[in-house]
């Protein structure tokens, strides 16, 4: 009886091993590459009934500052996405900034000074004042740096 049980166990193990996909053969640069372009993605949970307030604040802060960064060539693009099912899941707003490459994420005094010159002290102070209300409207639930997978 023990031999029969042992043979059954070995047979079941072999079936599992042979039916499982072989992921070890899938290799970076052989089977896929990561895009040079990257995206910074922030997932946000906006409280019920606060969506329009948050979007109004974003228009004056996040969007306005990203327009300056885009004009300066610091970023490629930016987008706001909202869930059509705002009360389901862990987040209901996604903020995405697209850059040509990881090197665009590197901060420098030159980039900062160019941004501040165009953004202006007044805009900076207004943005800080508006952003003070964000904790009452939303919770940031995740931040990610993404690369698109390009299969070969």
What does the model show?
By secondary structure, the protein is an alpha+beta fold. It has a single domain, classed as Alpha-Beta Plaits (2-Layer Sandwich), CATH 3.30.70.100. Strands 2-3-1-4 form a four-stranded antiparallel beta sheet. Helix 2 runs parallel beside helix 3. The chain is flat and about 80 Å long. The N and C termini lie far apart (51 Å).
**Uncertain segments:** none
Structural class: alpha+beta
Shape: flat
CATH structural fold name: Alpha-Beta Plaits
Q: Average the pLDDT over all residues and give the rounded result.
A: 90
Q: Whole-number radius of gyration?
A: 24 Å
Tally of strands: 4
Biggest sheet, open or closed, and with what strands and sense? 4 strands, antiparallel
Measured between the Cα atoms of the first and last residue, the distance is 51 Å
β content, as a range? 25-35%
Topology readout:
Layout: H1 2-19, E1 32-46, H2 51-60, H3 62-71, E2 77-82, E3 93-99, H4 109-119, H5 121-131, H6 134-137, E4 138-151
Antiparallel strand pairs: 1-3, 1-4, 2-3
Helix pairs in contact: 2-3
Question: How would you summarize this macromolecular structure in one to three sentences?
Answer:
With 152 residues, this protein is of the alpha+beta class.
């Amino acid at each position: 009886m023990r031999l029969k049980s042992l043979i059954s166990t070995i047979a079941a193990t072999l079936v599992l091993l042979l039916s499982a996909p072989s992921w070890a053969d899938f290799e970076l640069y052989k089977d896929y590459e990561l895009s040079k372009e990257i995206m910074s993605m922030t997932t946000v949970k906006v409280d019920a009934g606060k969506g329009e307030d948050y979007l109004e604040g974003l228009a004056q802060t996040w969007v306005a500052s990203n327009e300056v960064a885009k004009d300066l060539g610091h970023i490629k693009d930016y987008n706001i996405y909202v869930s059509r099912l705002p009360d389901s899941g862990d987040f209901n707003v996604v903020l995405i900034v697209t850059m040509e490459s990881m090197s665009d994420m590197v901060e420098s005094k030159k980039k900062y000074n160019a941004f501040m010159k165009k953004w202006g002290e007044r805009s900076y102070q207004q943005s800080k004042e508006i952003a003070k209300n964000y904790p009452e409207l939303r919770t940031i639930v995740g931040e990610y740096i993404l690369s698109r997978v390009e299969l070969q």
